[in-house]
Amino acid sequence: MSRRLSGRPASGFGLVELMIAMTLGLILILGVSHIFIAGKQSFVLQQHTAALQENARFVLSRISRDLRQAGMFGCLDMSRLPAATRSQLPVEFAAPVSFSSSVLKVISAVPVHDRITASGTRQATDYGAQWLLATNCLDELRIASGNTSLAVEPGDLLIPIRQIEYRLDQHRLQTRLNDSGNFEVLIDEVAGFDLQFGLAATAADRTVDGNYVTTVAAADSERIRSIRIALNFSDNPANTSAGQVRLQQYTLVTALRNRLD
């Protein structure tokens, strides 16, 4: 007796079907991985951009605050002092704001004044300052610098004066106080740091006349009305075109001592 074989095809997966399924699965896994990696890279770039923006906000607010105080010596009006008294002033006081070789120097009073009630001595370093002035806010002035002791009398008002420096060095914005010690790093990834000055036509005018300039002579310091600060940031400051984050450019204009109308 013989049996007939069934004409139905064999059921299940063959080798071809298995290979196709594995290929499709691999493509799906690669697609999901690509989406995940792209999302992670986008998140990292957004975080880096936000960090650059925060650095810009911090530095611009700090520098603009120091610039607004430039040339302020408390109650003392240097222009009203007798010529013999003015001759005692350090030469740095003639230009309370200067910018040369990518170094910004700002001279201003420390916001802590001391009214003397008993005779004694004081030093500028006692107040974290570079110079110490003792004055009656009218026509008397005595001055000492650094660790030099200054004799003080009852009725004197002490005005500590400090010098703050900012400079760009190897794409790092650095600062130093009172022209001593090493510069300390504030922020990294700085591609550019520049200042321009808005000058009035005369020392009596209150509005900026003409275009901003890059340099100001000490004799023209009284004509400075505003300062334009420009900062550029990049995750690759040495070659901004090769950076992953687009070059971040920030500009801030600061008025000095409320000189503008």
TrEMBL record:
Keyword Membrane: yes
InterPro entries in the cross-refs: N_methyl_site (IPR012902)
Pfam families: N_methyl (PF07963)
UniProt entry keywords in alphabetical sequence: Membrane, Transmembrane, Transmembrane helix
Transmembrane parts of this sequence: 12-37
Domain of life where this protein originates: Bacteria
Name of the molecule in the record: Type IV pilus assembly protein PilW
Organism of origin: Halopseudomonas bauzanensis
